[in-house]
Specification:
Elements: E1 14-26, E2 31-42, E3 47-54, E4 57-64, E5 67-68, E6 71-73, E7 82-92, E8 97-106, E9 110-112, E10 127-129, E11 152-158, H1 184-194, E12 204-207, E13 216-219, E14 222-225, H2 240-243, H3 246-249, H4 255-274, H5 276-297, H6 322-331, H7 343-361, H8 370-373, H9 377-389, H10 395-409, H11 417-429, H12 433-444, H13 450-460
Parallel strand pairs: 1-11, 12-14
Antiparallel strand pairs: 1-2, 2-8, 3-7, 4-5, 4-8, 6-7, 9-10, 13-14
The structure holds zinc ion.
């Protein structure tokens, strides 16, 4: 018996084995005109209906073996959208294979405007990308939106000239090489040494427009990344070492298994590339992130569990470091006592303590940008975090500090959800920051991606 509270589909009666997707993209009307063929097989006897997940799809027709089928779309629900009920003409016995052909159109995908909202970098062409995680595949096509079934797919996408369509597949069109991220092959090479061979033949990175709301999204063969990784000095490209291990791990039944294993492989790659102290330092940062998220949710909150019951929760709202960092602690049984090598953390803490002491004499000659020149971006963040654990600094110290780290700040992520969401939340919590947070959000809202808008709104407008 398969249990998945986030799908409406009758997944214990029927299973999809393949999807054939055909799209015509109309940027002017912001519509995908689509036909999908679902190859299905029944799992039990007497199957008379198929229920699929949908999200704001306009269903035009449903057919099977040339005959039109009765169907109806249930009312939309707040968290999981709506179920498409399809009545079959016969009762099917177990192991019956059949095709359903569904004509529909959708606009509930990620359209980025070139001019009006300025969501694309050069503001010349519109842009469209599809984000299926966590449960957004249902806004692309009527489907059984569950990780319980693995299936193959074929897709054909027509776009107007001069635009190009890219899809995550072994036969990916085009070459998207980027010098900034040239360490990618090294990550794969190291992974192959302690895992199996990389099976997918190709690994491409697609740098998305700045409003892409995630750091990275591990689509097979074609990982999406935020342009904020392109800091100019290759200092942030190690994020890719997290996305690559997903190519080995695939999609397991539970999110924490995917991410827990992936983080542990990522740390192994980092350890072999930069030395064990770097892997241990990453573990220290992970531990801290986990502590902060547990504190934010509340210790007894169900979302701090590795397998939270999401019956009444939108999976997007459950997103945190818990499945990643707690998942890693469990999957690699590495260290559940927070006993790590603190070599790299020590330098950050010592610098923070020096700045803390400067509050008394307010003499800043002893500080130089060279102090953080040898720091990785993560070390600089740990330095700042440590500093903010002390009592609030007086204004002259903050002013000197800003000058001190200004070059580093220019390189920090500004657009994606990982960077933006906590900034808004923290600003909203400060004494006079709530209005500033709301005002800044209103002014920039049209630039952000809809998923980012929804999540930030929940944090600062509730
Ligand atoms: Zn991941």
């Amino acid at each position: 018996m398969i249990y998945n509270p986030n799908t409406f589909s009758n997944i214990n009666e029927v299973k999809t084995t393949h999807l054939d997707l055909n799209f015509i993209v109309d940027f002017k009307c912001k519509i995908l005109d689509a036909v999908v063929t679902l190859k299905l097989v029944t799992l039990v006897d007497n199957v008379s209906k198929i229920i699929l997940d949908t999200c704001y799809l306009n269903i035009k027709s449903v057919s099977c073996c040339g005959a039109q089928l009765e169907h109806n779309l249930a009312d939309i629900t707040e968290k999981f959208s709506s179920a498409l009920h399809i009545q079959l003409n016969d009762k099917l016995s177990a192991n019956t294979k059949f095709d359903l052909i569904i004509n529909y159109c959708t606009s509930a995908v990620q359209w980025l405007e070139p001019i009006f909202y300025s969501q694309t970098s050069e503001k010349n062409h519109p842009y469209l990308f599809i984000q299926c995680q966590a449960i957004h595949a249902r806004s692309l096509a009527p489907c059984q939106d569950t990780p319980a079934f693995k299936l193959s797919y074929h897709a054909s996408v027509q776009v107007p000239q001069p635009l190009r369509a890219l899809i995550s597949a072994v036969e990916l069109v085009g070459n998207l090489c980027c010098l900034e991220i040239c360490r990618t092959e090294k990550f794969i090479e190291i992974g192959e040494k302690f895992l199996t061979l990389y099976e997918w033949n190709k690994y491409e990175l697609l740098v998305l427009p700045a409003s892409f709301p995630y750091g990275g999204m591990e689509n097979p063969c074609l990982t999406f990344v935020t342009p904020t990784l392109l800091a100019g000095d290759r200092s942030l490209v190690d994020v890719v070492s997290h996305e690559i291990p997903h190519s080995w791990m695939g999609n397991l039944e539970h999110f924490w298994l995917n991410e827990g294993w992936t983080v542990s492989i990522e740390r192994k790659i980092m350890g072999r590339l930069h030395g064990e102290a770097t892997a241990e330092f990453d573990a220290i940062i992970g531990w801290r992130a986990l502590e902060q998220d547990i504190e934010l949710f509340g210790e007894s909150n169900v979302l701090t569990a590795l397998t939270p019951k999401l019956k009444v929760v939108d999976p997007d709202d459950s997103f945190s470091s818990v499945p990643y960092k707690k998942g890693c602690l469990v999957t690699c049984s590495w260290n559940v006592k927070n006993e790590f090598d603190h070599t790299l953390a020590k330098a950050c803490h010592e610098l923070a303590e020096r700045w803390h002491r400067a509050r008394d004499n307010q003499v800043f000659d002893e500080f130089s940008p060279d102090d953080i020149k040898i720091f990785t971006p993560e070390q600089t963040m740990v330095f700042l975090e440590r500093l903010f654990e002390f009592s609030p600094l007086p204004f002259p110290v903050i002013e000197a500090l800003i000058n001190f780290i200004v070059s580093w700040m220019l390189a920090i992520p500004k657009y994606d959800l990982d960077g933006n969401k906590p900034l808004y939340r923290l600003l909203n919590q400060t004494k006079n920051g709530s209005e500033l947070a709301k005002k800044t959000f209103r002014e920039n809202k049209s630039f952000y991606h809809p998923i980012a808008v929804a999540m930030i709104e929940k944090d600062i407008l509730k």
